[in-house]
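Annotators were shown the component list below and the corresponding predicted structure, then asked to write short factual statements about the assembly.
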Amino acid sequence: MATVTVSKKACSVNPLKMSQPIGGALAFMGLRGAMPLLHGSQGCTSFGLVLFTRHFKEAIPMQTTAMSEVATVLGGYENVEQAVLNIYNRAKPEIIGICSTGVTETKGDDVEGYIKLIREKHAAVANLPIVYVSTPDFKDAFQDGWEKTVTRIVETMVDAPKSPARRDPTKVNVLPGCHLTPGDLDELRTIIEDFGLEPTFLPDLAGSLDGHIPEDFTPTTIGGVGVEEISIMGQAGWTIAIGAQMRRAAEAMQQKTGAPFMLFERLCGLEANDALMAFLTEISGRPAPMKYRRQRGQLVDAMLDGHFHIGGRKLAVGAEPDLLNEVGGLLAEMGAQLLVAVTTTQSPVLERLPTEEVLIGDLEDLENLAKAKDCDLMVTHSHGRQAASRLKIPFFRMGIPMFDRLGGGHQLMVGYRGARDLIFNISNLLMADHEENHEPTPETWLEGFSSCHATAAH
Amino acid sequence: MSSLSATIQDVFNEPGCGKNANKSEAERKKGCTKQLQPGGAAGGCAFDGAKIALQPLTDVAHLVHGPIACEGNSWDNRGAKSSGSNLWRTGFTTDINETDVVFGGEKRLFKSIREIIEKYDPPAVFVYQTCVPAMIGDDIDAVCKAAREKFNKPVIPINSPGFVGPKNLGNKLAGEALLQHVIGTEEPEYTTPYDLNIIGEYNLSGELWQVKPLLDELGIRIMACISGDGKYREVASSHRAKAAMMVCSKAMINVARKMEERYGIPFFEGSFYGIEDSSDSLREIARMLIERGAPEELMDRTEALIAREEAKAWAAIAKYKPRFKGKKVLLITGGVKSWSVVAALQEAGLELVGTSVKKSTKEDKERIKELMGQDAHMIEDMTPREMYKMLKDARADIMLSGGRSQFIALKASMPWLDINQERHHAYMGYVGMVKLVEEIDKALYNPVWAQIRKPAPWEKSGDNWQTRAMAQAEAEAAALAADPVKAEQVRRAKKICNCKSVELGVIEDAITANNLTTVEGVREATNASGGCGACAVRIEEVLAELASASHAIAAE
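Structure shown to annotators:
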């Protein structure tokens, strides 16, 4: 069992963490016709916008209440009102999702009250879905913003079914954590549909940020789950939640609609996917399709082939809790030692990580610990590239932001196939590193000899 | 906060700013506190602007005092390059938490400065103020002063919380911080008659290095570049330079002007985009240095170098000219680039069908008119749909823009080239111009376009979303052409002032009814230009148009 410690530094150096409001905004981006709106000054939105554009390589819908100094002191009612009306007039959204920021939380704006007043004053937006989530920047992290937003969407937008008899056993709700990529969601959709079930993803980034070419230019999201579809999610037979972060949202769904839920803390790896297959077999009453029996075999083979390269590796991972659990878990199962684990925020899953200590810290911590423990593989988002190059160790990119490589949105981790691909990609990286930097020369034999000699002499 | 608002007033009072010079006394006092539109705004905040302007100082530790959003969401996202230290690429932030918000973050800030100095020992620490600590009253000036005394090291406060205004204001506040705390605080080891400051150049993609060898060859020393590939001590002793070149006047005109005022360093505004502009700038640098005491022969050597470099560049570009014949470019960018790139592209034989002027000053627009002729197609502000229509209507073959609008072009299966800060290639100087031409050629002639424009096998020919969108747009245009009343309605409904939401028709009516001749008159009558004032230029155009129309009627 891992102990969780929090960094004692006053100054965070090379942040691993990103802020809550943009985590919330990303969740809203998985809704169709949505416009996420950050209640704060312009930079709050523009930083998130640039970050997501660089990661997904897509146009990103996101707006700001553009709080000025005066508005911040006096309160932001007029800015929220103007923003909602402007967005309504210009973008014709199906839903507006508002996240607060550090600025407006410090002042203490009552946004729920504002929304009520705006609806009363303007008939046009009286029935427009507007969801508000409190997400101060000075608390928690990206993953928490996502979690709170999904929970809030469930609480406010899902209708309670009129009678339990109307529950449809072929329908399944899926609540994915923010560590899953649009590619992962597509893979999961295929798996669930192959069991004859009909999944509804909330949020569904695969519909909006998977890089497809839109039918028309729209300033809002171009796909995702629709407001109507969300409202009838209570009729589903089951809810599948992925990642420990989604427990609260799943519980909210159960409480409101009675739909039972199953939480998968991990979906990367053999056992994790065996559990998924068993569960889908049970709720659908159908045996696992042949396709997945073959894929399971392929994953087992990949594990056998990959363990030569991954086994014994001293691993340093910096990621948000659930992603850390997925990738750290898989690589530990392949024989790597998770020596350094750095994360952004508290989570029950941290204690269960296959390592002794987890640090809530930054990339400076990751770099220093990796150096101290002589790690030989680093996994984190693109910001870690400088640290890895200073340490001269192979670097595998995972998580948001991934701005210096293509395909971050399609990186696959879930399902037998996802785990297989991940094992291949990491093994290939290690093989390439070996060819480039660790081929033996006469000197390496000498060094090996002298180090043996030195040990023997002691 | 009072000193910050005084600084802001001071920045707005910039006599070197063309926009300001055209305003009345009262208007100047009000400054350009651009009221940003909630729900309709994009772009960064003042903090963003300050950090963009100063972060290219490579050996300085840039510490952001605020919650994680300000640095955690944004660090490491610009492509400035360094020839030495990489400290500027390290993200430092106090990442303040709830407790700090309640009890104040000054202690954490002081400890952070100490940790940085102990671990990294930079020549200076720059501390950026953000919204939340500004609201709770953290006095970063006092903390920086205390730290400076305690650690005997420059600790510079940059007072630019995001909510005081837009990115551009932040650029200027950053310049003020340099003027107040850095420039003139140290003396250079030695000086020469060839010492030049470059102001407002950020060395994105290492562009400065495309020009530096030329200056080196002429024996001209870049005493300080503010701030691309800059070092703290260079900026601190930059007050001993003989002349300065101002590259981006929108961002740092206050620095250039005040250095002229305080230290007698004359400056000129120039560009290294495009062959002729590069040559003009080199000539101007030589002329100014000679004026300040460099030997006359510098000009001869400069002319010789220009002749050689121009010949080389023209030769390299010449082979593209036949390939570019009849090819049309749509340019969506801002500020100085809107005209400096126009010149560059025309040199390569490309035809420009439009350029955006959203961020351009009046002078920028004049220059565009000079280059492209009176009916230059200047685009104020565009929705994605309009931009796509523009691409198709103008039959542009390629769009050059910043990353924000790239997907409009790409998803419309149109070639696109990044010419903003996230670009991967450097386009400055003679070699940069050749590189730009090469890149345009690569984009235009990439075989990928032919493939991706083909319909899918299940699509009937011509029945795709692009055709449908275009048909819709054409139908709308045809309907307007057939209905002059409706067309006039649409023309009059065009928004001139976005802040106060005033339409063209309202302004025209007010002008004719009251015989208005000035922007101020229009503002009094209609409230237009009562917000950010950016539409003053457009109102002037309306005034001029109506005046010439009434002249024409009078003449008949």
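Statements collected:
1. Chain B is about 50% helix and 10% strand.
2. The mean pLDDT of chain B is 84.
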